[in-house]
## 1
Amino acid sequence: SQWGEENLQALSIQEGEDVTMNCSYKTYTTVVHWYRQDSGRGPALIILIRSNEREKRSGRLRATLDTSSQSSSLSITAAQCEDTAVYFCATPYTGNYKYVFGAGTRLKVIA
Amino acid sequence: AQTIHQWPVAEIKAVGSPLSLGCTIKGKSSPNLYWYWQATGGTLQQLFYSITVGQVESVVQLNLSASRPKDDQFILSTEKLLLSHSGFYLCAWSPTRNTEVFFGKGTRLTVV
């Protein structure tokens, strides 16, 4: 899992496997964003899930959200080598302009 | 379409020297602007945000300052660099609060 001061996690899987990355957040939020960051580049949003959704799908991506436990997950089905990247969850703070990223998961998909 | 441009792409600076990094956002009026810092292998730490020209709020204290001299421009600076300032600096914008944040390509800063 990932949040705040925790170190970036590392996962290494074989191509074709499924993988799930977890995130827990510490503040009330109405949405969780998941970003992907390729080496040397800024992060880019890949999927978002709102508090009134339990699950959201986009292609091979699946995000879940459990507001009662303040946790979210990102799953990638049949991972490909091009999925190799760092994945972050992020949540906006309600009431101000803080926008906080989790610690991140470095995913390596091996052929 | 909106574009975000950061400069410079990379810098190598001496400890104690000044620093100025910048970004401009085109195609969006009155964006919310952000500066983030990322250590190698680390997460993104929000440094500053600005919701309007001339107003900047600090999120963490890292002996850095930021200014927004124009609606589309955000500047990060310090008069005296520390070794701990090394890292990847990212400028970002969002149209409103609670929405997706769009990042620039970043500036790699090495302090020696």
## 2
Amino acid sequence: GQQVMQIPQYQHVQEGEDFTTYCNSSTTLSNIQWYKQRPGGHPVFLIQLVKSGEVKKQKRLTFQFGEAKKNSSLHITATQTTDVGTYFCAGGNQFYFGTGTSLTVIP
Amino acid sequence: EADIYQTPRYLVIGTGKKITLECSQTMGHDKMYWYQQDPGMELHLIHYSYGVNSTEKGDLSSESTVSRIRTEHFPLTLESARPSHTSQYLCASSGIPGTRYNEQFFGPGTRLTVL
């Protein structure tokens, strides 16, 4: 099946530092979605990217879709404790989620 | 808030028992999914459905079955529970018919413990 890998698996940052997670696919993706899962919660949709090279922003979050549509990134500027959670990408047909990046923000 | 429900929320059961996890959504979505997720780990697709009378297997489907008799209902059955089935089970739905909108909405999950 489709392979969608994310790096890093875990990331600890001091509050106020930036954070980036990368999503890489073995195949070209028609689109990519990002989700956030708080500890003890369920995944919640953040955004969908469709076009090659697309960049979208949501306040402190910046999402990018690669030119070849095989990779994507999520960048958080000046992290806050409310950013804690695991961030998942989901590629193509959305059936297969990435491995996730767990973010810990140290106050 | 998404209108997708799962019952029970927590279940502790003995080995060998047959169990059914319920999932219902009131959004009219045509696609529904079941995922298994251990704490802090990735989601593994178990089964999915494109619509009524449509079911497909995912990566971890060999020990469970699903049915989709009604659009809003997508139950998951484990014929014989084993300790290796201990995990959280998440149901999701997506896809408003006639649109390209395919964001997945997740239910709160069922946390299953098999003794």
